[in-house]
Structures are given as C-alpha cells and as structure tokens.
Give the backbone structure.
Amino acid sequence: MKNLKMPEFNKIYISKCSQHSEVAERVKSFYPSDIIEFVDDSFLESQRGSMNAQEFNESKKTLLLTEYKGQFFKRCPGATQKKTLTCCNYHVLNLGSQCNMNCSYCYLQSYLNTKMSLIYTNIDQALAELKIMIDEFPNHPFRVGTGEVIDSLSLDEITLYSRKLIHFFQQYPKWTLEFKTKSNKVNQFIDINGSENIVVSWSINPNFVINREEHGTACLEDRIQAAIKCRDKGYKIAFHIDPMIYHENWKKNYGELVDRLTTEFKPEQVQVISIGTLRFQPEQRHIMKERFGLNSLVTAAEMFPSEGNKLRYDATLRGEMLQFVYKRLKSTDEKWNAFFCMETPETWISALEKVPMQIPELKELFKPLPTVR
Amino acid sequence: MNSNTLELILSQANLNGLKPDVQSWLEAKKIKNSDLIFINLLKTDIHWNLFFKALMNTIEFRLSYSDSLKTLELITDLILMGHTEEIFQFNFDQQKWTHHLKSLRYPTTNDRDDELKKKLEKLPWPYGAKTKFERRGDRAGIELKLFITSEADLIKTISALERVKEQLREKS
C-alpha cells in the first residue's frame, strides 16, 4: 500500500515550553533545521485573528508546536444545537488544529482563528484530564474523537499520539476512542493489537468527489486498504459517508461506494456508518469561492438557509440522498448500524419515518449522557 | 483579498465611466465594506463589465439594500460560473429577472420546484382555498389559506382535504 508522504511544511515554530517534548524531538529529526525556529510562549497570541484565503492557505504550511492552555475535552459542536439537530453524544479531544489536507467544504475555513497549524505537545495533560472524567463516569459509554479540528491521523507519524491514546483507552473499555481521518496513515500504530473500544474511522466519498473536492487526501481505495489493515488487527472501524455531495451521477457513485463497503466488510466489524450531506456556515462561502473558484461541486452547489442557520441542499433532495444510502446499506444486511449526522428531526422523519430514539440499534448511541464540565 | 471593497468598486466604476452612479448608490443604500466582500472574486474586465451592467439594473429597479446585495452576489456567482449575456434576459421586468437569475443559479432546484408546484396545484384543494407555492430556505411547498365560516363549512373542508390525501395515496 502506498502511504502519503510526510506532511510538507514551509516553516515550523517550536515554543519554548515545547522544545524538550517528544514531538519536538521527532520534528527536529524529520525536517531540515533551516525551517525550524524556536519562539517564546507568547508567540501564539500574535498569530490570532481571522484569516483571508491566502493566510488560510499559508496556515496549512506553517506549524507551531506548543502547549494547550485550556480544556482539551469538549462536546461535539452538534450537541450545542440540540434544539435543531439530533445529536449522537460525540465528545472531542483536540490535540491540535488545522489540517494538512485541503477539502473545499472544510468547516475549518470559517472556524479557525490561528494563522498556523498547531500541534499541542502536552498530551499527558490531556490524558490526565480524561482520567478525571473517566473516574467520574466510568460506566457511561462516552465516545471521544480526536478528529474535530485536525485530522486524527494525517500528522500522526510526527506525533505518534495514536499509540498513547490507544494504550490509555484500552484500560477503560466502556469509553470509546475514535480516530477520524481521510488519510491512510495507520502503519505507525498497527503493531499494537486493536480492541473493541478503539475505533478507526474514515470519512469517505466516491473518487469522483475525492478528486474534485478532497485535495491532498488518500484515494478511496487507499482508505479502504488502511481500514482492512485495522480490521485485521482487531480494531473496530467506522465510516462517515459525509458530506455526500450532489452531482449528476450521485446515485451511481454513492451506490458503488456502499457496495464496495458492504462487500469488503461485515456489519459486526463496522461500529457505525454515519451519513450526512453537504452543509456549511453561510459566512464560509466567500473564502471557499476565493480558494476554489466556482467550478467546484461545493461552491457551485445549490444551497439554501436551513434550521440552525447552516446552508444545506433542498430538504427533499437531502432526504432522498440520505435515504438512498441508508436503504442501499440495509438492503444488503439489516444489521448495518447507520445514522444521519448533524441532521434535523424533520429529515430523519422524511427519510426514515423515525427519529433515532425509535430505532433500537441507535437508541443507545443517541441516549443523553451527563454534561461534561 | 482587498478588504476595502468600497475603494475597489469605485476604482472599477471609474474605469467604466460609472463612478457618479455607483457612488450615489453606495451612499443611498449605506453600503459597507463587508457587504461587498464577494466583488473581490471579480478579476477581469469582462467580469466587471457584466457586474456593472447588472448593478445598473438593480439601481433602475430600486431594489432594497438587502435585495440589491443578494442579487449582486448571485450575479457575481453567475459571472464566475461563466454566464455572460444570458444573465440579462428578462431584465425589463424585475420579478421575471429575479426568477430568471435564480433559475440560472439553482437550475436543479428550480426544475424540482416547478415539478412540485405542478403536482401540488393539480390536487383537489377545498373550494375557495387559496394556494401559493413558495420556497422558504431549504424547503419548498404551498401555503394553503382557508376561510371557515361554520362547523358545517369546516366538516366540508376536512372531507375535501381527505380527497387530497386519497389522491396522493393513489399516486404513490
């Protein structure tokens, strides 16, 4: 299997507080010294502020290693919109921010306010924070993902955080760790045996969409081959068919995508398949158009204001797209565990005539959990 | 990206000999820098010519602040998608022009809406009911207005709606 090459950076800054960290040592061994500069801990503050298109592009090529000063463990943004969205109790652990890949629809374009990619070097503090939560709620089935504002694995060859996280979560089988990636980078942890509570997940799309909209990511087959490696090593895997992007041959392409999954994997090997359609914040449209022009399937998409203020496809079309993938999956085996990500109850009902709490296999996933501090 | 979009539009207007018209429009509508962020995407003389032609139309139609900006952003999208003179079909009538621009920018949705509208309009709505097809954000449908004067009237209306339901059931 072809692995993507080492992430490219034009400049790497290392904060004083991070200079003796394991990650800094690895960075120094991988990258030429002339692109590395040591900076004061206050440097990060000078890099705050909203970004224009050019600054956003540059932020992908500039890396800062520093320590995170806030709370690592948070609820998924979907949970803050409970009035409009049906939320699946996902929690996030942010060990950095920005992504070295370049998807046209990426929500980070309207979310980030730091003019460089960040890797937090104080993972031990994050694990200590998690330990406190686990001690408080040892028997609650929390799902913790590391791929909210950074791809979980695309920089993992630099950090090797996957290894620490896997070892940590394997001590707490009720809690689930979920890596989420569009890369095929799994070799750095694949020597560790998997377990039921470690999920490696891939956000996937047909190659037609990957080639046009998911720049710098692994192709579909490479993602699937990486998933096969993880499955064979005992990891649970998951897929996110999200965001589905409407195009002329969407039924054929998404149909083939589902068929590829269902022939390669069995329902019991795949923890969950989440399905979602394209959505983004209205204010993001300008930077997307500036960065990707109007020939993109995303920037030229027919989007309308919807509940929760995001732009989405027409509700009926959205229901058709979600229902198509859901039914195609279920037609091969009723046991596939699929749900709609960040969708309104109206869409659930239009596509499936049910909300998640009425679907036995999803009830557990959507059951409200205690609120984290 | 130029953060001073007012300067940008005025300098381009000057090149196109339209500075006084554009300046008075900016002042009358109290347009701010952040309102015109989308014009940064216009790169060529052809883009700007098309944009100003459309702007003159919106001035002529005396569109409100919000409708002007929505229309101009939509037109900017169309210009960048490669549309040229077809943008100005129906520009003699504001309603027709707006509908035409939306059908160019949202062709699939437009076709689906037309189909849905035909389907809904053919249904046997109660006598006297007023129907109006509308798109409200990501949802399209009809607004149904009924005027009920008595209990008997209400019962009649409900049974008429039952016929709508039956017809829909037969079709599906």
